[in-house]
Amino acid sequence: MIHKPVLVKEVLEYLSPKPNENFIDCTVGEGGHAEVILEKTGLNGKVLGIDLDQNQINNCKLNLAKFKERAILVNDSYGNLKDIVEKNSFEPVNGILLDLGMSSAQLESTRGFSFQKDQPLDMRYNNISDLTAEIIINDWQEEQIKKILEEYGEERFAKQVAKKITEERKSKRIESTFQLTDIIKKAIPAKFQNNRIHCATRTFQALRIAVNGELNNLEKVLPKIVSILEPQGRLAIISFHSLEDRLVKNFLKNKEKERNIKILTKSPITADFEELRKNSRSRSAKLRAAIKN
Ligand SMILES: C[S@@+](CC[C@H](N)C(=O)[O-])C[C@H]1O[C@@H](n2cnc3c(N)ncnc32)[C@H](O)[C@@H]1O
Q: Do 99 and 222 fall within a single domain?
């Protein structure tokens, strides 16, 4: 496995998987979390693992092969969760996990997620949707680009970066990650380029979120989740971005007010010192959990 799953012991604590229980892993990736859940739910408990990325599903199949038919893997969007559950007659559901965003395997792929490798500006988790990062960068209006950089990237120089992109694309189409990174470097004042994070990080994050409709999918799945769970079923959601975390937090609060669930995490759970040391991806991870009434 290339990807190191985050907050594993905390996910196990809040999902509390027991023998013969069934779980849905909405973002199964390479199966890191699914594996530890399957280890706790023998002999007959199952995991329905979903991922939008067929490559992730292929690798996950190999990683979870030892669990045989206890691991059911589906290449689809968790936005379609209700249909996927019905199609697979997957019930009862004792817990649901969402570990949002991108995996390390995708960062290392050839799809342009990383500004450290020169690749085509694609950034799709699947290869069937029409929107790519290249289309956003070359065809969207300056104002639209600025908006996603601000909202999804929290880029303080969104205006300058969007302006530079639209200037530069007049002379040459922007097709590669290195071309884009050079433009970002020209747009961001030099004294802000030696920060803790690379100056292209926020723009790349914003593009990835926009290309894959990440917030839309989360908004689509949240209202369906509680009805899919059994009473006393548990929900754990790991987010890596403040907009995602706010969506999750507000959703859980509303559901608690309606007396549908009880929130188990007063404030979000973050990685402990040991994990922070071993896995830099865990730095921005926030886990929220709840139990259905
Ligand atoms: C952080 S990784 C999950 C890693 C996984 N928990 C593990 O232990 O290997 C997030 C995964 O969510 C997938 N993903 C992103 N958007 C999705 C969507 N709308 N539906 C299903 N999977 C999605 C990505 O392809 C990626 O594999």
A: yes
